Amino acid sequence: MPRPLRPVVEARRNHIINVTRDMISEVGIEGITMRELAKRCNIAVATIYNNFGSSGKEAVIAAALQLDFGGRFEELDDSLSPAEKVKARISQTANDIKGPLRDYTKAVQYFYFHHQQASEIRAIIHDYSVSEFNQIVRQIEARGHLETWVDTKPFADDLVTQVYALIVKWSQGYIADRSLKKRLLQAVCLQFIAISKAKTRKEFIDILNN
């Protein structure tokens, strides 16, 4: 078990992470430099390495994303049905990215689709969403309502890519703010309708009808 950080060290780490989040919104992930980050934090570049390890820039950006995605993807109430979980998460996501996370989301999604190399950063952006969709699929399976042909791993992986592609279209102005939630719900629910049967399938259809 790692030792808890001393308050002064934890405060410094949190300050660096918060400045990193601001910079992601302003200049994008790839626009961040260690020199500029250190300058904005009023610390030496070496201090960032001391706090986040030898990978430096990637580690501090990963820490910022981990904090954001970890906070936004807190586990949904187990009493909710699969369809209710999808509706709750998509509604929250649409509200967040149209509001306080607008520029931040645009920068993160641009990086996701344009970064050429596999990295810890891209994995964090991708894996939180995949994990949650996989949990919903397992819940459908536990209900006995999952079609037998479904291969769950690529299903969740492909669904995340589709959702992120719609968010990119929104960021480029092709989807209006008022339409974003509806478009995301439609895209996700249609995929779950295809792999579900019985009561679960009807619950996803009801979301689109209401």
UniProtKB/TrEMBL annotation:
Q: Does the keyword Nucleotide-binding apply?
A: no
Boundaries of each HTH tetR-type domain copy? Answer: 16-63
Q: Does the keyword Transcription regulation apply?
A: yes
* Annotated keywords: DNA-binding, Transcription, Transcription regulation
- GO MF: DNA-binding transcription factor activity; transcription cis-regulatory region binding
- What Gene3D superfamilies would the database entry show? Tetracycline Repressor, domain 2
Q: What is this protein called?
A: TetR/AcrR family transcriptional regulator
